[in-house]
């Protein structure tokens, strides 16, 4: 979606080299989560950078680096595992319809911009395909509801399911500041607490976010041209929920209740 909300485009790929510096950065302090009854936070602020940074435990640092490695993987149609994952996505979406070829006009039924989904995956990388597969396998009813727009009073001009999914992956990477060596926002620091306790936290948060976005879409009675506005509203709501004091795991987020298996 461009900045004016005018049309869907493949979202810009994040930089291939994440700004991590050295491969491993050991820390002596422990991370903190204000208002959560856990350990105390240690926020560091440089004069040249108005945003604080949060120290990580070794476990949190390792989890972040593993997630960053996932983010760095581009979709590559020459890799058999990538092709198999793409075909698995089709089978999850349309189990009764055979996919004739990995490059096919059939993909438009799922909301891709053209007959080759790999051109759209350039925006979010292979992890955006993994996110969609996680949604399909762990919350199949929500996946089908979102794909087929089965809930609510829908617009004549709806958002395309698959491209919206890639945009959500990209938005979460930005919101959680996953390009940085350390989180520089409380939202990012809070997420890393969840990630250190659940290696699938990013995938689960993706599922929650997709359902929340659709919920906001319906509440705002949005149409195709409003997608960018809906995404901004979704991000604000998600940030608020992540910082609620009684949220100690992703399943505690109010929007988690929107998901159904």
From TrEMBL:
Pfam families: ELMO_CED12 (PF04727)
Domain of life of the organism encoding this protein: Eukaryota
Cross-referenced PANTHER family: ELMO_CED-12 FAMILY PROTEIN, ENGULFMENT AND CELL MOTILITY
ELMO domain sequence ranges: 81-242
Name this polypeptide is given: ELMO domain-containing protein
Taxonomic source organism: Citrus sinensis (Sweet orange)
């Amino acid at each position: 979606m461009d900045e004016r909300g005018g049309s869907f485009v493949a979202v810009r790929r994040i930089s291939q080299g994440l700004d991590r510096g050295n491969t491993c950065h050991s820390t002596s302090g422990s991370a903190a989560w204000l208002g959560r009854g856990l350990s105390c936070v240690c926020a560091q602020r440089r004069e040249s950078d108005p945003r604080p940074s949060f120290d990580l435990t070794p476990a949190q640092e390792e989890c972040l680096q593993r997630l960053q490695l996932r983010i760095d993987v581009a979709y590559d149609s020459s890799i058999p595992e990538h092709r198999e994952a793409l075909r698995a996505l089709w089978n999850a979406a349309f189990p009764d319809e055979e996919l004739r070829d990995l490059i096919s006009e059939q993909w438009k039924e799922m909301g891709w911009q053209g007959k080759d989904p790999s051109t759209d995956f350039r925006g979010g990388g292979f992890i955006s395909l993994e996110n969609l597969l996680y949604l399909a396998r762990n919350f199949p009813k929500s996946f089908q509801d979102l794909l087929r727009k089965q809930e609510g009073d829908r617009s004549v001009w709806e958002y395309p399911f698959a491209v919206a999914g890639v945009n959500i992956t990209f938005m979460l990477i930005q919101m959680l500041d996953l390009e940085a060596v350390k989180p520089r926002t409380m939202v990012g620091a809070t997420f890393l607490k969840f990630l250190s306790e659940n290696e699938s936290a990013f995938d689960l948060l993706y599922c929650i976010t997709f359902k929340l976005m659709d919920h906001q879409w319906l509440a705002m009675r949005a149409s195709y041209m409003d997608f960018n506005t809906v995404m901004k509203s979704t991000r604000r709501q998600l940030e608020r929920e992540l910082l609620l004091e009684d949220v100690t795991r992703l399943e505690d987020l109010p929007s988690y209740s929107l998901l159904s298996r």
